[in-house]
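Sample pair:
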Amino acid sequence: MRGDPLLVGEDRLSRFDLISGNNERFCDFEADNPITRSNDARTDRYGSLWLSSMGKAAEKGAGSLYRLHRGKLTRLRSGLTIPNALCFSANGKFAWFTDTVTGVVMRWALDNDGWPKGGPTPWADFSSTPGNPDGAVVDSEGCLWLASGVRVKWYA
């Protein structure tokens, strides 16, 4: 990469040229699958982009989780419905994600290059609470903040 922003589109990754304003296709992203689209993305401390796909109508099991590392896109997990909440520990030892419809946030141990070691394990189960886990971020103190998708009516 030349330092230009990378745009995640419905079915491709594109490089945005800051000088010309042009988009240049970088690589396809499930372009051969008409029922999916991109969903969530986040970079890790190694400069890799983790991104997910899901069915356009949230089709069960249509989604996947990927890592773009040094120009190569690798599928890490498939069979997901709405993969969300991608985030990482500051020390690079863990990644978190959820398949929103399950209500379970998963934690994945990472090796010294940021690749998953083994399978993810359940970290927090919200399946019996209102709402579903969605976006997430880890703050400067190492606390994970999670959007729950609970609708709240606000009275002024």
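The mean pLDDT is 90.
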